[in-house]
Amino acid sequence: MAQSSFFFCILALGFFFGASYAFDPRPLQDFCVADLNSTMRVNDLPCKDPTTVTADAFFFRGFKSAGNTSNQYRSSVIPMNVARVPGLYTLGLGVARLDFLPGGYLPPHLHPRGTEILIVLEGRLDAGFVTSYPNYKHYSKILEKGNAFVIPVGLVHYFRNLADKNTVAFGVVNSQNAGISVVSNATFGAKPAISSDYLSKTFQLDKKIVQELQSKS
Description:
The chain is of the alpha+beta class. Helices cover 20% and strands 26% of the residues. It has helices spanning 2-21, 183-188, 196-203, 207-216; strands spanning 75-80, 94-100, 105-110, 116-122, 125-130, 138-143, 148-151, 156-161, 167-173, 181-182. A five-stranded antiparallel sheet has the order 1-2-9-4-7, with no helix packed on it. Strand 5 (125-130) and strand 6 form a beta hairpin.
């Protein structure tokens, strides 16, 4: 009897600790459509009742045409994210259409929470990234129609159009919120501003140039 009780206790403890430390890396339901109108927050947004969900929650028509390229970068980014497609919620995925006029580019930036795959549909694009300290090695590739390039998570990267016509590409990240930090904006456009004396010494630039860059960011 004592041995049976001891065995039962071991079995119960094993189940308890197994339940305590086990976790499911995948969602426990088919989908979780974000309730964008809810004021309740559970990690981020609660799920809608699946019986009320329609196909529109998984649909996006925004990639039909180019975005607004009338800016200093001569480029545009149209994101397909949870705010626009609530059916993406918890699926760990984000997509964007990228359009570049001749001479257009996206400045050096990074995604702190996502690896990106860039796919060129039309045109010719120079894509590159730089590794972290201590090597700062530059990897780049000229991408033609049908080519793809991987940008590892958290690394500074850039894109620029080399074609004499518009270039169209798609960027896919393995996060529903990969985040983005543009290097120049983070450095010269910080609020409140980083000391211009410090930036002048760091980048070995005249202080007036630094202040001009800060005024433009």
